[in-house]
Design goal:
The structure holds two protein chains of two kinds. By secondary structure, chain A is α+β, with helices and mostly antiparallel strands. Chain A has four helices and twelve strands, in the order ααβββββββββαβββα. By secondary structure, chain B is mainly β. The chains are: A alpha+beta, B mainly beta.
Chain lengths: ~290, ~200
């Protein structure tokens, strides 16, 4: 379980390859941020032009987005096949309080001491495409510590680990689709996509909907990050409005006096395909088993 | 058609390994228990290399074809079949699940397991299905399979192993690329991921 996991335990893992190998680009000249930024800009410009010519806005990241080098051999080249979701796909696995303890939503109390960094509250609601709350569902998060270091063997960034911070949390959404985590604001961290590549600070989020087709894993960012235009992962969503949906808002109402700054972030899942009963539509199932 | 624009997905990245896996995550029932089978396979990239940093989820009906709505997947009691599991590939790209053969959800329907694929370098999760190989008539009548070319159709059907288990590989790219599914047929959502192809841009 996340709470019991320590840096020590992870030290015993088998040796694994570096997290972002240069792969096919080793023999070439070192790629700089300027090289990557030019590619990002060219793709953004083409998209802007297409929008002007009446193309519908994109809402998802491009699977084929070569500025993120690791995607080059890992994206399907054939179109996704249109399918009507059937049977099992119209339902989601059930999670409840047997699965997740209430304290797992506080990432600052998993060890004996207080973690380093800026304490924050991240809260919001999980809704489906029609605005219905997604009640009683699992939300999982993971993140780097305040120094930008993951407690993962494959993270070789020479920033300090924090013995009081693992960076993993879970919760079950309330009847109104609400979730809330108490954590530490993660730091930016360097990666090896190109020379001087840095990820904007982010928290990984994993969510289930009411139907398996709504399953999503994504990343939440913090407002005003100067690294946004430089980051091929954030920029793989070429539409600015769509990108903005991954950025939390500072919310002073959510800020807890003399304790933690508040950030609000709602998640909208893709549309529901099942015919809903009235009880489901009103979220009566709540978060109880 | 949805009223609200959906939140975009992002790659699972390289560091999910201390967060998403959990004890017995890939054991929908205890290995060796009556009716249990192994579902296994390898995840490959477009160069034919096994991917060491992918994580899969399966979601399926029980052996009677019933869709289960029971909690307890994350803290398994060893007796309750919840129908959902999560399995990380190892360094050689191989995943395994212990599960049951899913039953058909209606008489004569083809039995399948729903699969979600996540990986470092994969921008958004992919959905697909793995079908049991036995009932040829059901497979022939399946709405999805019958809409595919025979060559592509094969990528969704598992092989039956001598020990009763199933083997099913996933190829993210290439000639024998696995069929991945788009369920958002209102034209506004996932269709956009292939926008570059129609514009002749960025073919890898």
């Amino acid at each position: 379980m996340p709470q019991e996991q320590t840096a020590q335990a992870l030290e015993s893992e088998e040796l694994v390859p570096p997290a972002e190998p240069h792969a096919a680009h080793e023999s070439k000249k070192v790629e700089t941020q300027a090289d990557l930024s030019a590619e990002i800009k060219a793709m953004g410009d083409r998209y802007a032009e297409a929008l002007k010519n009446g193309r519908a806005p994109e809402t998802m990241p491009r699977l084929d987005y070569s500025p993120y080098r690791s995607s080059i051999l890992r994206h399907p080249t054939k179109s996704l096949h249109h399918a009507d979701p059937e049977t099992i796909e119209l339902y989601s696995p059930a999670f409840g309080h047997q699965d997740v303890h209430a304290l797992e939503s506080d990432l600052t109390i998993q060890h004996n001491g207080e973690p380093q960094g800026e304490r924050i509250i991240v809260a919001g609601r999980v809704l489906d495409g029609d605005g219905r709350p997604v009640a009683g569902q699992l939300v999982e998060i993971w993140q780097a510590n305040a120094s930008g270091r993951y407690i993962h063997k494959r993270d070789q960034h020479p920033a300090p680990l924090d013995p009081n911070f693992t960076g993993v949390g879970r919760c079950i959404t309330g009847a109104d689709g609400s979730y809330s985590f108490t954590t530490i604001k993660p730091g930016a961290y360097p990666w090896k996509n190109h020379l001087n590549a840095w990820r904007p600070a982010h928290i990984h989020f994993s969510m289930f909907g009411s139907e398996f087709t709504q399953r999503i894993v994504t990343q939440m960012y913090f407002p005003g990050d100067q690294l946004f235009p430089l980051d091929p992962i954030y920029q793989s969503i070429v539409d600015q409005d769509a990108r903005d949906r991954l950025v939390a808002q500072y919310d002073h109402e959510l800020t807890s006096p003399e304790w933690a700054l508040g950030y609000k972030w709602d998640i909208i899942l893709t549309g529901s395909k099942r015919t809903w009963t009235e009880n489901e539509a009103y979220g009566d199932a709540g978060d109880e088993e | 058609m949805s009223k609200l624009a959906p939140t975009p997905g992002q790659t699972v990245g390289p560091f999910y390994g201390y967060a998403l896996p959990f004890n017995k995550d890939n054991e929908l029932l205890a290995p060796g228990s009556p009716g249990s089978i192994r579902l296994q396979g390898t995840v490959y990239d477009g160069a034919g290399n096994a991917i060491p940093d992918a994580i899969l989820e399966i979601w399926q009906p029980d052996s009677e074809g019933k869709i289960v709505q029971r909690t307890g997947s994350l803290v398994r009691d060893g007796y309750t079949f919840t129908g959902w599991g999560r399995g990380s590939v190892g360094n050689s790209g191989v995943y395994t699940f212990t599960t049951v053969n899913p039953g058909p959800t209606a008489p004569g329907a083809a039995a399948f397991i729903s699969v979600a694929v996540f990986a470092r370098g994969l921008m958004n999760r992919l959905f697909t299905r793995v079908y049991l190989p036995e009932n040829e008539e059901a497979l022939a009548n399946d709405p999805l399979l019958s809409s595919l070319d025979p060559e592509r159709r094969k990528t969704l059907i598992a092989r039956r192993d001598a020990d009763g288990g199933l083997t099913w590989d996933i190829r993210l790219q290439g000639g024998d690329e696995t069929v991945f599914l788009d369920f958002q047929q209102d034209g506004s959502l996932e269709t956009s991921v292939n926008a570059d192809h129609s514009e002749g841009e960025n073919q890898a």
